[in-house]
Automatic annotation (TrEMBL):
GO terms for molecular function: L-threonine 3-dehydrogenase activity. Belongs to the NAD(P)-dependent epimerase/dehydratase family. PANTHER family: L-THREONINE 3-DEHYDROGENASE, L-THREONINE 3-DEHYDROGENASE, MITOCHONDRIAL. Its EC number is 1.1.1.103. Pathway: Amino-acid degradation; L-threonine degradation via oxydo-reductase pathway; glycine from L-threonine: step 1/2. This is L-threonine 3-dehydrogenase, mitochondrial. It catalyses: L-threonine + NAD(+) = (2S)-2-amino-3-oxobutanoate + NADH + H(+). Residues 58-293 form the NAD-dependent epimerase/dehydratase domain. Gene3D superfamilies: NAD(P)-binding Rossmann-like Domain. Catalyzes the NAD(+)-dependent oxidation of L-threonine to 2-amino-3-ketobutyrate, mediating L-threonine catabolism. SUPFAM superfamilies: NAD(P)-binding Rossmann-fold domains. One of its GO terms (biological process) is L-threonine catabolic process. The gene is LOC112948564. The lineage of its organism: Eukaryota, Metazoa, Chordata, Craniata, Vertebrata. PROSITE patterns: PROKAR_LIPOPROTEIN (PS51257).
Amino acid sequence: MPIVKSVSRAVNQLLQSSGCGCGISIVPVRCLGISPRQVTSDASFHSVSFSESDHPRVLITGGLGQLGVGLAKLLRKRFGKNNVILSDIRKPADNVFYSGPFIYSDILDYKNLREIVVNNRITWLFHYSALLSAVGEANVPLARAVNITGLHNVLDIAAEHNLRLFVPSTIGAFGPTSPRDPTPDLCIQRPRTIYGVSKVHAELMGEYYHYRYGLDFRCLRYPGIISADSQPGGGTTDYAVQIFHDAIKTGKFQCNLKPDTRLPMMYIDDCLKATLEVMEAPAEALSMRTYNISAMSFTPEELAQEVQKHIPELQVTYSVDAVRQAIADSWPMNFDDSNARKDWGWKHDYDLPELVTTMFSFLGSDSRIAQAN
Ligand SMILES: NC(=O)c1ccc[n+]([C@@H]2O[C@H](COP(=O)([O-])OP(=O)(O)OC[C@H]3O[C@@H](n4cnc5c(N)ncnc54)[C@H](O)[C@@H]3O)[C@@H](O)[C@H]2O)c1
Ligand SMILES: C[C@@H](O)[C@H](N)C(=O)O
């Protein structure tokens, strides 16, 4: 086939699949010949397309944080151990290293990330690398680099290689001028943390790449996530994990938020279930590309009361961290996730009582509960 004809066929295919319909150029930015890191201008035409009957080949960035190892476990169960690669810039614990493929990947190293995607024929990418709200405020330049420059690398590679891309957003993508009770999917978003600003940027850039280049971008705004077997990475909602550990270890918990600070929260199993469900949802079901998801909403006082049903002698004191409190006071109190429920059937399994019971059964507090009774 003459070269001109095959290129024009490829362009037509790309235009049809772009969802853009505007007839203007849809080649990703780094393919336009203006980037020092450019690949050939027809790079995406050569991508192996993902057939729905195959298992996806998955890469998880920032996979050694609170959520990544659990996500890998869920995806490996579904798609096979060797089809899911965990990556991070940290050294994995033995049990993680031996549980399936792990690879070093710094998302700020564009060429290395691209090499990993190409050599492993990746088709789905879950982009978990980030600096969370509190650690982001403590190191704004690093948060800007990881959360914004890193995202740009991931977006370009995903667009060039025709990946389905999941990027989590957060309740932190809203700010003091957003409606807080409840917070709908579409409303004013003027966050006042670098974390929130970077997440609004991620939502908008992902949606822009979707409409402009046909990138299959999918995004959920997670509430604060609570897990038993992984530690949170420096956020405002971390107290809701720490209380369980301290209740069991010392019977005392000092909370860094005020007792009446209400925030949306979710058990990790619900969060990971939603993530897989939105990635598997048929594109036609998605009326939007960024959805709120919700399960429960509580204050430190309400959580402490539920914990005290299991450990009655728990003593809770409050020593407010001004940075975290200001952040929490600007975030949603309740999250409206009706679009996720309507479009792709989202439904949570864990409310507050089930969450607390499950956490204690994981953390093995039986002996302490027995002592208390
Ligand atoms: N955990 C939550 O409550 C929560 C809530 C809302 C959204 N999210 C989002 O979910 C994602 C995962 O959250 P998490 O709680 O597991 O985060 P985490 O902070 O626990 O883990 C983030 C990981 O990113 C890695 N990382 C940092 N810089 C990197 C770089 N340059 N290259 C590659 N990796 C790098 C870190 O080593 C870390 O393991 C994040 O994007 C976060 O914003 C989390
Ligand atoms: C809410 C979420 O994005 C994270 N747990 C934080 O508090 O920063």
